[in-house]
Amino acid sequence: MDSGFKKSIKQLETWAALKELLQKSSLDSIQAHEVDLIYRVIQKYSEDAAIRIAYLSNHTIDPLPRYTSVACARQGILLSDYVGPFNQYVQDAFNPDSNLVIFNPNVIFLDLSMRELSPQIYGEFFGLTDVQRRDELCRIVDHIRDWVTVVKKNTEATVLISNFPIPSFPQAGIADAHSDFGEVEFFYQLNLDLIQTFRNDSRVYMFDLERILSYRGKMGAYNPKMYYLGKMEWDEESLPIIADEILRYIWALKGETKKCLVVDLDNTLWGGVVGEEGIGGIKIGVGDPEGEAFFEFQQVIRSLKDRGILLAVCSKNNFNDVMDVFETRKDMPLGVEDFSSMQINWETKCNNLERIAADLNIGEDSLVFIDDNPVECELIRQTMPHVRTIHLPKDPSKYPGVLRHLFEFEKLLLSDEDRTKTIQYHQNSKRKEYKREIGDVERFLEGLGTTLSVFLAKHNHIPRIHQLFSKTNQFNLTTKRYGPSEIEAFIEDEAWFLYAANVADNFGALGLVGAYLVRADSEAVVIDSFLLSCRVMGRGIETAMMNQIKKDFLLEGKYQEIGAEYRKTKKNIPVAGFYEQQGFAPSEFSSSDIQGYQLSLNKVEIIDCPGIQLTEVG
Amino acid sequence: MINEKVNKILADILDLETEQLSDDLTPDTAENWDSMNHLRLVTAIEQEFSISLSMEEIQSIQNISKLRDLVKQHLQIS
């Protein structure tokens, strides 16, 4: 970190300027005092923070928030934080007027050190009987479960709970494994019980500190000196790694998850250049060291596809050469059918990336581009800074690790929709072909045989609806990003009506692809949010959903008028005219980015939706 | 060189300009020199010079010059 950087960071005046400076600077291996400096600057803008995170613990957790805030700011996410007083996590959670509750966090990170939580387990494990050990384990799990129950009631936060790292040197030494309920078994069991306790709770996530510290190496992960001096448990070197893991959760929670991985081919998916060496010359698969590395790399890419990330190809090549490779090398983990878009030609990669985004109906900033060629990578970085570009290292043995380490594709939960996403996109290209054959849009829509069911959302829909709220950019009239706990509250609160829309057609099930949220009290009814996955835009589904609102609240309801608003963002311009198309009139309420609308009972009309059949909730 | 590096670290952690650092600055006279920042200082100094101060040494740091002396001692420069 040079003195120029220091000077300019102190003179900044806005969060936007800070974000730009951090993204431009390479800040590899920054030291403790530099983190403190940047953190102080970040704190100046805490009022604009996108995420409010609270840290609670029974040791001095304080240096960690500095690292988390810096890590998130470097990815463009501004945090404000609250650090609970030492060992006050119970009082903070249980008192409804506590500073924690007043802070109103979106995220709570709880880390408990065994030293304080159970001095017996930490210091005297060997002296405890089998029964005492089991009792203590139950006590700890109950304690955490009770704490979580209260925290969920008193706050709206998503809760991250650290698990307990396994001691590197059990008190019984190597004989530990043969003792009844030994120390290592105790920690495995405790961590397992905690996973199982919270597995089905979409507001609570086990934070795998054991795994993260093992990855870093537990030798040196703790700093006893700082613990004795100031109850600081972790060594400074552990903090960036723990912070990076927290970033993954915040990234997913904020809905920043990238949607598509775009790969190059030659020397990326396989070794060698097919246009020069021919099919026989490329390296992939068993029998060649480099070929094995490329094989494993393809497997990692495939696993991304299996968790709902779209794949695309962007390569300067002869199309037929590439098809020959996929045709003859069926032993490769990836086949043509795994890619939702393939741009193989001699045009610039920039054009092809634009085409991929348009083809898949996603934003260019949802793309992650990966290539071995430094020139191509730099070019994309310069011309398309919103695309996340990853330059592969020289040695293919490092490829799989690069991809496994990415946080850009993190999601909190994987839904059924994620697992079948590529299939759906394939169905979509079939739908497009069908559109081409028929030519006439209306007849096309009728021929699709679309069925739609609209129903009040229930608890089991929360993960998917949260995904929609956090990821839908284009067809999203207000772009309010609600978290799982807020969604849960909408379902339970009688003044709110959260509807979900399920779609299927002759080509297959599209699943839960739309939602709208209406607030209706004794006087007024207002559409708070209205969103639809871009995969089903332009098929009249949005109109059918709006018809349902008109029926429920005006024609068959007790209201005289519905209010709504459009909040302009960079991405939702395509739906700027939506409410007018649906018969709404602009209201007096408007500002530069918000336009209000209203629709009164005497003006309401049900708009025909050709080819969409409403069905009862399945 | 050592003095300069120590001063930079002090300034960053205590939120001061290097010109504001005088040799007799102590935890009592510097506003932000609390027990937490005392340990942050030690951590940053240990990182910068790849040294490890003992608990006794850490507790004995009463002012800037004492801190500098400790660093020099560990680097075996007098």
Q: Give the percentage of residues in beta strands of chain A.
A: 15-25%
Give the end-to-end Cα distance of chain A, rounded to a whole number of Å: 59 Å
Instruction: Assign the CATH superfamily of the largest domain in chain A.
Output: SGNH hydrolase
**Number of extended strands of chain B:** 0
- Please tally the helical runs of chain A, counting DSSP H or I stretches of 4 or more residues: 26
Alpha-beta classification of chain A = alpha/beta
In total, how many domains does the architecture of chain B comprise? 1
Radius of gyration of chain B: 11 Å
CATH architectural category of chain B:
Orthogonal Bundle
Task: Walk across the major sheet of chain A and give the strand order.
Answer: 16-17-15-14-13-12-11-18
The CATH architecture designation of the largest domain in chain A is 3-Layer(aba) Sandwich
Structural class of chain B: mainly alpha
Return the average pLDDT of chain A rounded to an integer.
Answer: 91
Helical proportion of chain A?
A: 40-55%
- Topology-level CATH name of chain B: Non-ribosomal Peptide Synthetase Peptidyl Carrier Protein, Chain A
User: How many domains make up the coordinates of chain A?
Assistant: 3
Oligomer: heterodimer
Please count the beta strands of chain A (DSSP E, at least 2 residues each).
18
Helix content of chain B: 55-70%
Would you give an account of this structure?
The complex is a heterodimer of chains A (618) and B (78). In chain A, the strands form three sheets. Chain A has an eight-stranded mixed beta sheet with strand order 16-17-15-14-13-12-11-18, sandwiched between helices. Chain A is globular and about 80 Å long. In chain A, 39% of the residues are buried. Chain A is α/β, with parallel strands linked by helices and 618 residues long. Chain A folds into three domains: 3-253, SGNH hydrolase (Rossmann fold), CATH 3.40.50.1110; 260-405, HAD superfamily/HAD-like (Rossmann fold, 3-Layer(aba) Sandwich), CATH 3.40.50.1000; 434-617, 3-Layer(aba) Sandwich (Aminopeptidase), CATH 3.40.630. The longest helix of chain A has 25 residues, at 130-154. The mean pLDDT of chain A is 91. Chain B is an all-alpha fold and 78 residues long. Chain B has one domain (2-17, 26-75): ACP-like (Non-ribosomal Peptide Synthetase Peptidyl Carrier Protein, Chain A). In chain B, 58% of the residues lie in helices and 0% in strands. Chain B contains four helices and no strands. In chain B, helix 1 packs antiparallel against helix 2. The two termini of chain B are 14 Å apart. In chain B, 27% of the residues are buried. The chains are: A alpha/beta (618), B mainly alpha (78). The A-B interface holds A 6, 31-34, 36-37, 40, 60, 62-63, 225-226, 228-230, 232, 236 and B 8-9, 12-13, 15, 35-36, 39-41, 43-44, 47-48, 52, 55, 58-59.
